[in-house]
Amino acid sequence: MPERYQISRQLHKLASQVIPGGVSSNNRASWQPHPLFYLRGEGAYVWDVDGHRYIDYVLGRGPLITGHSHPAIIEAIVSQYRQGQFFAGQTELECALAHKIRQLVPGMQMTRFCNSGSEAVHVALRLARSVTGREKIIRFEGHYHGWFDNIAWGFAAPAEHETRHQGILPMSLGQAASDVGNIVSLPWNDADALESALSVHAGEIAAVITEPIMFNSFWSNILPEKGFLSKVRELCDAHQTLLIFDEIQTGFRTSIGGAQSSYGVVPDMSTFAKALGGPVCLGAVTGKQHLMERLSSTQTIHTGTYNAFPPFLAGALAHLEVITQHNAAALTQIHRLSERLYNGLQQLAMQSPLPLQVRCSPGAVTTLFRHSSAKVSDYRTARQQLMQDLTGRWHAALQVQGIRITPEGLWYLSVIHTENDIAQTLEKAARALTELEQ
Ligand code: PLP
Q1: Ranges assigned E (strand) in 3-151
Q2: Per-residue pLDDT for 2 more than 80?
Q3: What is the ipTM of this complex?
Q4: Phi-psi category of residue 301: left, alpha or beta, with phi > 0 → left and psi -120 to 50 → alpha
Q5: Rounded to the nearest whole angstrom, what is the distance from the C-alpha of residue 114 to the centroid of ligand 1?
Q6: Which comes out higher in pLDDT, residue 47 or 168?
Q7: Is 428 assigned a catalytic role?
Q8: CA–CA separation, 403 and 55 (whole Å)
Q9: Which Pfam families does this one have (predicted)?
Q10: What residue spans define the domains of the chain?
Q11: C-alpha distances in angstroms, 53 versus 40, 364, 415, 417?
Q12: Sign of CA dihedral 42, 47, 53, 54
């Protein structure tokens, strides 16, 4: 039988000679059986170089909420590219997009643009330190806020916790150990732990940063406990500590105004990327005017050659137009489809002898295999009794069926998926699960 991913395998071999691991982002290396190479994306589908078509639930890891190659968005990008690429100066597009964000995300009055989510977080943290004159940041275990050294901490296994770097492990070797001195890492969904840390470090904490829905780590789609986010807001106010919501996963997906508008909690600053720009590289930090205005001084600096790159802003405006028109009908449709997919996968899980577990937040579904049915509310409980090997095999089995999800089991929905795609997906998922059961 011919090898299924032969051309991809050869290309990966070639790539590995000149690109470490053959990939430009480490999380692409975990693909089964090796990183695949792709040729084309259109609507809800992508094609790999070996000629297989997939219903795509990876969607660039979330950004492509309008699907692949949306004609109006491509047209906006291309037309701005033709008109002029960038000027190291201002364009009306930048102003229009910042006003649009102000209109869509209640309480977020001013915005600075950058090129990725990691950068947006970096700006927010710098701003928080500049405004408060404090250096420490509280973050939550297992939340991901990008890969930059001063925040990529807090991924420890419980057993290792007590021993290294004051109990907080870095995401990577090569991070300066001195950065951990400014990090306080806490379990999520635990208001008492936060209250106590804010008291222990009274007057030292510049900001608390949190994903409003815990999207990253082993068991994504962990929702905040009832009242947790508003308690965090209250505690931050009591300690004159700024609250940053990292809405890079949830922004323009959970709801147009982000999870903050779903949960009715207004942070001081928020970071957006992914579904803010869709097919273009765009990050943004946005926040209350009196905080953001500090960036207009010559003393708190945020720069970047490609910041607010006009063709990308044109693309982002066209992209937001698609998801906000008709009272955000597109987003309502995405939420309906994610519910439908969730229910269908739940049915499969209930009928299967394998411990498949399914979770959902509006617009995204997670599947993984785990022995325990104990409630998951944070990173440590999420790690317990995971069957990562089976989760990887499930990813590979779905891929053979023409269903593309992330290796860790995230399924992102888009405007362009249809009821028919979901029905087909569920049939194929049933086949993949039967195969795993053999
Ligand atoms: N914050 C969150 C919540 C994320 O999920 C991510 C990326 O997945 C980031 C920050 C980093 O964004 P980027 O990959 O664009 O640098």
Answers
A1: 38-42, 45-48, 53-56, 110-114, 136-140
A2: no
A3: 0.99
A4: beta
A5: 13
A6: 47
A7: no
A8: 5
A9: Aminotran_3
A10: 6-69+327-437, 71-322
A11: 9, 21, 19, 15
A12: negative
pLDDT at 408 over 80: yes
Q: From CA 149, how far away is CA 177, in angstroms rounded? A: 9
Mutate to test the pocket of ligand 1, among 153, 249, 276 (most ligand atoms within 8 A of CB): 249
Pick the CATH number of 6-69+327-437 from 3.40.50.2300, 3.90.1150.10, 3.40.47.10, 3.10.450.50: 3.90.1150.10
Is residue 375 annotated as a catalytic residue, yes or no?
Answer: no
Rounded Cα distance between 175 and 153, Å, is 9
Quick check: 364 and 413 in contact, CB under 8 A? Answer: yes
CATH 3.40.640.10 fits 71-322, yes or no: yes
Residues 95-123 pLDDT 10s: 999 999 999 999 999 999 999 999 999 99
For the segment 15-29, the average pLDDT, to the nearest whole number, is: 95
pLDDT single digits (tens) 370-382: 988 888 888 888 8
143 Cα to the center of ligand 1, angstroms: 10
Tokens 């903050």 map to which residue?
260
In 64-203, which residue ranges form alpha helices assigned H by DSSP? Answer: 71-83, 92-104, 117-132, 191-200
Exactly one of 144, 342, 379, 412 is catalytic; name it: 144
DSSP 112: E
204, 242 in Cβ contact below 8 A? no
With the most atoms of ligand 1 within 8 angstroms of its CB, the residue from 274, 285, 408 to mutate is 274
For residues 39 and 7, is the Cβ–Cβ distance under 8 A? no
pLDDT > 60? residue 275: yes
Distance 210 CA to ligand 1 centre (A): 12
Which atom of ligand 1 lies nearest, measured to the CA of 274? 15
